[in-house]
Write a structure and sequence with these properties.
ATP synthase subunit a; ATP_syn_F0_a_bact/chloroplast; two-stranded antiparallel ribbon; hydrogen ion transport; cell membrane; mainly alpha
């Protein structure tokens, strides 16, 4: 959009008291007065904050991802070093999470024998996605690491390579392509229609939908949180008279949305890993 003229002042990164609950927002009017501004995609493309103009340039979103990754590694290193025969609460929580992925996802979908080969991948994916998703509700971070397409694409490509390599390993390249592109039990002339659809499904739609579903849910959650808490600040600080009472409504909605985002973040991690396991299972089966 073209820049405004006549001395317009910008407030894209002005901090406000309640904005720390959601993100740093342009809540002040672009004309210098008070006013409410709805959230925008600008939050997902922050300016560099470190090493600007170098190959190591970092912006706020990348820094959030780095913090989440470091914390996740520290948590599991500490859990491994303090592991005891009789686990404490911390060890119990970690083991419950790992057992959940192993039993309820890997073994349930792939079977015990096949699960052994892929459980490490699925466990790593689950906890990594969970950590990156939940940064959106952590004060001071306030944005999900998976809310920009780069990281979801990387995770989807990881899943893509794994289920393709598992299929080729189990059936050979020819057997995998035959099982994937030529479903058994249909008349030969139907392959003219079915084979292109199967190709799109296996090689394009599966990884694309993994990435887009994850990103879209995190983007939507962030925008809703920002909207609720921005409105709270506007009604509480800028509105007049009885309008200030609406701040209680929007604050309650913001708290409810925070809890809902916690649920969605965990659910999206679960869905991503379940679908990855399903795709691996489909790729190693000779007929599906």
């Amino acid at each position: 959009m073209p820049a405004r003229k006549h001395g317009t002042r910008r407030h894209d990164h002005q901090e406000h008291p309640l904005s720390s609950l959601a993100t740093v927002l342009p809540l002040a009017s672009s004309e210098g007065g008070n006013g409410f501004h709805a959230p925008s995609i600008v939050d997902f493309f922050p300016p560099p904050i470190l090493f600007e103009g170098t190959p190591f340039e970092l912006n706020r979103l990348q820094l959030v991802r780095l913090v989440a990754a470091v914390v996740l590694v520290i948590v599991f290193v500490v859990a491994a070093r303090r592991a005891k025969l009789v686990p404490g609460r911390f060890q119990n929580v970690i083991e419950m999470g790992m057992d959940f992925v192993r039993v309820n996802i890997a073994e349930e979908i792939l079977g015990k024998e096949r699960a052994r080969e892929h459980v490490a991948l699925l466990t790593t994916m689950f906890f990594a996605i969970l950590a990156f998703n939940l940064t959106g509700i952590v004060p001071g971070l306030n944005i999900a690491g998976t809310s920009l397409i780069g990281l979801p694409v990387l995770l989807a490509l990881w899943a893509y390579v794994r289920y393709l390599s598992a299929g080729v390993k189990a059936q050979g390249l020819g057997g995998f392509l035959k099982a994937s592109l030529f479903p058994p039990g249909v008349p030969w002339f139907m392959y003219v229609l079915l084979t292109p659809i199967e190709f799109l499904t296996v090689f394009i739609i599966r990884p694309a939908t993994l990435a887009i579903r994850l990103m879209a849910n995190m983007v939507a959650g962030h925008l809703m949180l920002v909207l609720c808490f921005s409105a709270t600040q506007y009604f509480l600080l800028d509105a007049s008279g009885a309008m200030k009472g609406f701040s209680a409504v929007t604050l309650s909605a913001g708290i409810a949305m925070t809890l809902f985002e916690l649920f969605v973040g965990a659910l999206q991690a679960y869905i991503f890993v379940v679908l990855t396991a399903v795709y691996i299972s489909l790729s190693v089966e000779e007929e599906h």
